[in-house]
Write a structure and sequence with these properties.
Blueprint: E1 8-12, E2 17-20, E3 29-34, H1 40-52, H2 55-58, E4 60-68, H3 72-85, H4 89-94, E5 96-100, H5 102-108, E6 118-122, E7 129-134, H6 139-149
Parallel strand pairs: 3-4, 4-5
Antiparallel strand pairs: 1-2, 1-5, 3-6, 6-7
Length: 150
């Protein structure tokens, strides 16, 4: 049986509530999940690799900072800090912060720990994970992504 990406709800940095992958059903979805603030550089490199291979034209690319559930005040504060740092409206649109039980989320995707950035190619109709990887995709993985998109 195919692995299905779990439905998670968060808010993008433009303050819109979004459920991933459910609200993205027009084109293939590339989800980049990061668990620690220091991983942002890796997330940016993953996005750059996807876009350099034309995947931004045929896919929706989103990044999801996965943060342990906390108080509403702490969530609002962290979201405000991220909005202050990220001024580009398109980047804010594609950055969807999810506050949840991190371990349960990782377990649902067979991710052993928070030490790496994970990316997923998700079929927009079935929510099935077609390909997945860790950190910056290799040239072989990028070729697979491009061929799966044809």
């Amino acid at each position: 049986m195919a692995e299905i990406f779990p439905s998670v709800t968060g808010r993008n940095l433009n303050k819109k509530s979004v459920t991933i992958p459910d609200d993205y059903n027009n084109e293939p979805l590339l989800v980049i999940a990061a668990f620690e603030q220091w991983q942002q550089r890796v997330v940016d490199e993953v996005i750059a690799a996807f876009e350099a291979n034309g995947l931004g034209e045929s896919h929706t690319i989103i990044e999801i900072p996965v943060i342990q559930r906390s108080t509403r005040f702490r969530q609002m504060r962290l979201d405000a800090i991220m909005r202050a740092v990220i001024r580009d409206r398109d980047v804010r649109q594609r950055t969807i912060t999810v506050y949840l039980d991190k371990k349960a989320f990782r377990d649902s995707l067979d991710i052993p720990n928070d030490s790496a950035v994970h990316w997923f190619l998700i079929n927009h109709a079935s929510k099935e994970i077609r390909l997945r990887g860790v950190n910056v995709p290799s040239s072989e993985e990028l070729s697979q992504l491009v061929s799966l998109s044809s």
